[in-house]
Design a protein that fits this description.
single chain, mainly alpha, about 150 residues, about 70% helix
Length: about 150
């Protein structure tokens, strides 16, 4: 029955969304900074890129008939992306939806986003790097000293 299939699909989606949020929680508990970016390419730009790939012999390996079939479902894909972004966005790990028609722009926007999201961690990371460096230097110095003491003086 179609209603049963739709209910099963909705339950599966809820499970997948819950799993994604749980995975991100595990990452955060492990000290990972989660930054999620959706690079949104417009339908017009996607078509331009597909046509360019078809016309460029060095890029034809990137194209398939499925690309054109999928374009016919553009609106459904956009709805699915929107549902996924909304269902998996959290206060700790929000999504950044960035227009991606222009590569220079999306590169700049992602770089700015990373600076914004990571700046608060800078001092702690620098302190940790210095501490680890000092520990490694002390270990290396001890190994060097142990090696010099063990060398024969024949």
């Amino acid at each position: 029955d179609e209603d049963d299939d739709m209910a099963a699909d909705a339950a599966e989606l809820r499970t997948r969304f819950d799993d994604a949020r749980a995975f991100e929680r595990i990452l955060r508990h492990g000290g990972i900074v989660v930054v999620k970016v959706f690079l949104h390419v417009s339908a017009q730009e996607q078509e331009r890129r597909l046509r360019e790939r078809m016309d460029d012999p060095a890029m034809t390996w990137k194209i398939s008939a499925n690309d054109w079939r999928a374009r016919r479902s553009w609106d459904r894909y956009m709805e699915a992306y929107e549902t996924t972004v909304n269902a998996t966005a959290t206060a700790e790990a929000p999504w950044a939806v960035i227009p991606a028609d222009l590569q220079w722009f999306h590169n700049l926007a992602v770089a700015e986003l990373l600076v914004e999201r990571l700046t608060d961690y800078r001092e702690a990371w620098l302190t940790a790097r210095q501490r680890i460096g000092e520990e490694k230097r002390d270990e290396a110095r001890q190994e060097m000293d142990d090696g010099e003491e063990g060398e024969s003086t024949d």
